[in-house]
Amino acid sequence: MLWETLILGSILLYLFYRWATQNFDFFEKRGIPYDKPVPVFGSLIDITLRRGSIFYTIKDLYNKNKESIYGIFFQTTPVYLIRDPELLRKITVKEFDHFMNHRDFFGDSPHDLFTNSLIQLKDEKWKDMRSTLSPAFTGSRLRQMFELINQVAEQSAKYLQQLQTAGNGEGVELELKDYATRFATDVIASTAFGLQVNSFENKDNQFFMSGKKATTFNWKLNLRFTLFIHFKSLMKFLKMELFDPSITNYFRRLVLDALKYRKEQNIRRADMINLLMEARGLFPTESTKSHTRNWTDTEMVAQCFIFFFAGFETVSTLICFAAHELMENPEVQEKVYQEIEEVNERLDGKQVTYEALQSMKYLDMVISETLRKWPGAVNLDRMCTKDIVLEVDGKRIEIKKGETIMIPVVGLQHDPQYFPNPEKFDPERFSSENKDNIKPFTYMPFGEGPRICIGSRFALLEAKAILYYLVRDFRIAPAKKSTIPMKLGNTGFQVAPKNGYWLKLISRSKQ
């Protein structure tokens, strides 16, 4: 019996090894240099085991080889890492019809919110949803939504002022991520769902806590992501969901109840719920009469969910890194403050406006440089939708339907060939005199081509609004727990500092 067990175990172990290494000769057959993979983990062992950060892993893979194409492995899946900007132009723009979709990470369940969101939708479904949602992010819509964003920004500024008043008058030390996340949460609640939650006063409100639970990449969520990537069919058979059902059910009720209530009460508001009602024909407009697709409840809810999921983490992280860089670079912070003072002088005591905020070009430069040094998406992907032959360094490389390419955003944006002294925080790279010197397709924090992030302008507007109030009211200084220079922690698929975003806020009115 013992021998039978050992033999059976050996056979199963061998079969597992064969499965885990079946594609490891993929690039060797094609004559493409590649990173030697680790069985099961591929090129991502440090990320999967949370021994490192995806930020540093992608940078290291980018720097391992200078060829235009380098082979890496996402666990057992071979992936073409593209280093050449001209090749990236071809993939994301010129030959977009061959690389229209993102990689299918989590299957195609008709009930799953993530797989039905704009990020994961494919082909014609993606095109239809993109055109449906695009009106939400036009200049006129953003101008309308700015009033909602500004209300939340003012609330957040008052919260910090209250902390100052309650303190000893020497400034307040705080870990900024919680503050920035509450701001981002309240903005999304207002602009997407029409809710006023005020997470600064109602700290444990369900909207905020649901978002925190959905975006905290602890070992459980890391494991779920890994299992869904490798065993989609098994997860579907077991009826497992990527996110905790309590979270997804909460968002379903939130969106569907809002749709029903607004229809009954004929309530119209400049937010995403209103846009989805127009798309469904509940509030017909000229722009929606041409839309013929009938969107399901899940597809409707999914767009609000991904807007929330992306905004909750991405925007708050951008705010935190920008504030940290202003703390590390006081001369940059002073320039931002002087620009704010000039804007306020023109406003003559009036509330900041959309136009006034958009006129702040140096603040734009600061945010652009923050996104270069600390991109929210350190890598992007595209999946080949039909076979294509690419000319690369004098060689013909055939990429087949279903194969994946990776855009190493953080590698390109930290390449001294394109951004000299890349570890230096230098907003002047994005001045009107210098920004045209940036080589196209080396700076793409929001992607490029038709699949560029639809909400990028909204995210930038959010970040500018909160930074306006933060620098207007406070001088950002190092706290006792501040880490200078910034060091990232071993946070796996998330980009987060080792010791948090600690800083000290000193009221300008007391200086």
Automatic annotation (TrEMBL):
UniProt KW keywords: Endoplasmic reticulum, Heme, Iron, Membrane, Metal-binding, Microsome, Monooxygenase, Oxidoreductase
Subcellular localization, as worded in the UniProt entry: Endoplasmic reticulum membrane; Microsome membrane
Keyword Heme: yes
Residues at which heme binds: C453
Cofactor field: heme
Stated name of the protein: Probable cytochrome P450 9f2
Keyword Iron belongs to the record: yes
Organism annotation: Zeugodacus cucurbitae (Melon fruit fly)
Gene Ontology MF, one: heme binding
Domain of life: Eukaryota
